[in-house]
Specification:
Blueprint lengths: L2 E6 L10 H8 L4 E2 L2 E2 L10 E8 L3 E15 L13 E7 L6 E7 L4 E6 L6 E2 L2 H4 L3 E4 L6 E17 L15 E9 L8 E3 L17 E5 L1
Parallel strand pairs: 1-4, 1-14
Antiparallel strand pairs: 2-4, 3-13, 4-5, 5-11, 6-7, 6-12, 7-8, 8-9, 10-11, 12-13, 12-14
Length: 217
Amino acid sequence: MKKLNIKKLKGVLDDACEIPARFELEGVDYHLVDCVNWASEYPYAPHVEVAIAYTDEAFLLHWRVTEDSVRAAAVADNGPVWEDSCVEFFIQPAHDGIYYNIECNCAGTLLIGAGTGRHDRIRATQDILDRVSRWASLGRTAFEERMGTCSWQIAEVIPFSAFFQHEIKTLDGQSLRANFYKCGDKLSRPHFLSWSPISLPKPDFHCPAFFGELCLE
């Protein structure tokens, strides 16, 4: 099982645009999201890396992506962001079988769901989605696919209150199951990458059996 040691940062960070500089200052490591699990049908692999840390109140994520085209057609939160240039963080914040899918396209449009499997997802309300600060290097306006090599970044502050099926007071020292993904279902070159490898016959990110481990300081 893949493992990451997750650094805890002191203080409060509320604005996602501050994350890249803070991570550089703190020496937070970046990790490749490069498992091509279904190479025969979906061989394309854009360059994807993610860094993650946490505070007393939130997870902090910074994604850096370079791909052959880019798309952000979903116009509202909880829309089909997975069809766009999309980065995803799936995590089980407790040991009750419930995991969250936190999916964000390259324009910062967000989807959050919770449940124990693909078919019992409960979507977060807009009030909960609005608690997640997002910074997108390409801006926050929707657009159709743009062809040509493009590098872009997303940063997210995901407060523990966004895990709306739980009441989290602290995650210090805990070990949690999670995975990181990059997809683009409706791009000219669709792809389905993961950090922790997935051994299934067809693309499926809703598979906690293949999650890796996050070891929090």
